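BUG-485 | component: ligand-complex export | severity: low

The export step for iron/sulfur cluster jobs runs without errors, but we want the raw record kept on the ticket for reference. Input record follows.
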Amino acid sequence: MRPGFNHAPGLLDVPEVWADFLQRWYDTSTLTSKVRAGIRVNMAKAGRWAAAQYPEATDPGQWRRSTCAAWVAAVDRMTVGDWVARRDHLHGRLGTPISPRTKAHILMVSRAFFRDLQEWEWSDRCFDPARALAVPRSVAALIGTDPRVIADEIWAKLLWAGLNLVPGDFPGTHTGTYYPMELIRALTLTWLFSGLRSDEISRLRVGCIRWQHDGMPVPGDSREILADDAIFLLDVPVHKTGTAFTKPVDPIVGQAIEAWQAVRPDQPKRLDRKTSEHDDLLFSVRAHPVAKSYINQTIIPALCAKAAVPTADVRGTITSHWARSTIASQLYNAKEPMTLFELQAWLGHRTPNTTQHYAKITPNTLSKAYTEAGYFARNVRTIEVLLDRDAVTSGATAQGEPWQYYDLGHGLCSYTFFEQCPHRMACAKCDFYTPKDSTKVQLLEAKDNLQRMLVAIPLTDDERAAVEDGQTPPCQTRQRRQKGT
Ligand code: SF4
């Protein structure tokens, strides 16, 4: 067993062979260091599990489909604290089942690890990682999209706090904030209005803003006479899922960025780790870019304190990414909403599938759509009922004479339990049916003492069409076709 310091600390108690493979994979993979570290931690768990359960499988090259099946089952039953290097920080969570997402993540990194090993011919292709280490359907069914959308009323308060930010809103800043207020305002408004990832915000370049009016760039001097419909374009650098792109955002963001650019001290160019280019990063002072965690650790708590809203809800602590979900959801549910493809372009997603994770239909929009669909009105219609008061007062009803008639459009039905009749569209031969063009109906309609009422009754599409248009019911149409009339 590795004592834990020859390789990474995360490889403590991992079998020697497994640790060597893991470290070699870590040194060879071209994934980002953060992703590689995450995969190494999870695959170290697999190494510890193999050492305890399948000692012959401590060499990844010895894994077979049966080993994979056993590992998938172990992941499915895994609890917090299983096969980890240290448990002292887990406190009350120790022994609780891991979430379906965590299970899927462990299996995803297992697939990536074994796929690389096979691709690089470090092990034989004894199994297909995509199939042997697939997420079980029972686990996949529990995983769905859950965009972290901030409630409208809380988001409105955060916007107000961001627009009215002052130095005193940051605790311990009586001697002035560490960063200039122009930078903090620009950073805050960019987070609140642009829907960018924190990494994208921290890597924005100097000069990333442009004004446009009617598709033409607006020179700096003429901005005072800008029309209301002038827009502000923000150049987003290469990001997590795609290349650089330009997106329109609210002018208030452009004004805040311009204000910061006007006072930003000249600084040496910094290396962008994602593109390996040296560039003037917008949000940097004293030759250091603002930390990506600054939004989460400083700006969001300050905004929440100013707006008097909690920094967390039942789904966890508000993070910078929640703004992206919230803005996307609001644009998708606006009065004149963006389409899914427009939203995809605005968010910079590679596929609309990813956008669907953000574009959650709000209950308000769903209620409006449901109401406008008119489900109740579609299925329940009022129908006219004629009441023959003469028949009631003369006592003829006691002898079985009909006294109420449902108007079917093409004729009248005198059956008292009309709404329960299963043959409503095949009335022609029914004893309760009287055609509209018959003498009996004409005599009835000529009576003075005839009362007309409306009752709500569930109707099918055909029945509704017959009642509304007075059209011939299908059964009669068929009969007439057969007779050639
Ligand atoms: S078949 Fe038509 S007329 Fe006869 S009871 Fe039913 S609805 Fe009334």
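Assignee comment: Attached the raw record above. The chain has three domains: 9-140, 152-330, 377-483.
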